[in-house]
Prior knowledge:
Blueprint: H1 11-14, H2 31-58, E1 60-61, H3 64-67, E2 73-74, H4 78-84, H5 87-120, H6 123-138, H7 141-151, H8 158-165, H9 179-206, H10 211-219, H11 224-252, H12 256-263, H13 268-271, H14 274-284, H15 288-318
Antiparallel strand pairs: 1-2
Amino acid sequence: MATSTLTPPSVDDAAPDGSRPARPRRTRSPLPFGLLLPAVLALGLALGYPLVRQVVLSLQEFGLAQQFGRPAEWVGLQNYRELVGDPYLWKVVLRSVLFCLVNAAVTMAVGVGLALLMQRMSKPVRLLVQSGLLLAWAMPVLAALTVWQWLFDSQYGVVNWLLTKAGGDYAGHSWLLEPLSFFLVASVIVVWMSVPFVAFTAYAALTQVPAELVEAAAMDGASPRQRLRHVVLPTVSPVLLVVGLLQVIWDLRVFTQIYVLQKAGGTTRDTNLLGTYIYRLGIGSGDFGTAAAVAVFMLALTVVLTAPYVRLMLRQEES
């Protein structure tokens, strides 16, 4: 008994004249876009309105009189022109950028170093270290600043007492009067409060590195430093880029630590960063138009500083 096999018609059989039949178009369902629409609208209202309001305010002369009902006067780019010609603004910008980059670099180095150390710790020691980091991270900012003020107090501070016992002349030394020592104290506080996030995130990324890659590199004769440099760090680099991006943004807009330390004895004009400068222009002096212009300038500066990180992230996604 002979059996026949049915074969599907080829393109040439379906179209004797040589033309290919049109493929049916896939219709996309609008349901996913409809589900995303409420979230997009909420984000647009929550983020878009304040930004637009800030830009409009920066183009106006808005002071205390406008808060009591007087119409705001439209001045265009006058606030920006005055800021560009103000040398003090550029000092604050340079100070803020240096403070941001130094603290972000130190935080990343210390956080990643702690994450690498936690991999080599025994479980009880690692849990103890993680608990301490979690407590430091969860401590309220003002409570932490109060503790640090006690530590660096000129009369009763533990830091001065320890340095004096070590042979230094630090009895009654005020750490907040000089700008350099002021920013040293501020950097210690900012790094101390930021390291736990970097350490936890980097440690979580390190636990996802395939052990087979590290073992293969070891079998090929790679030293521990070479395995770290050529295997481990490239594997976790996407996570480190995101964390570094967040650190740059956070350290550029730092406010509470600087403001509280200024109130504790620091010289305001010599220690202002962009956050405190905007606050003192708006709330302190009542010049909300100029303060809004500085805020827009700060937003543009944030975009400039974070652009290299975003570019690296996009390159890694493409590769």
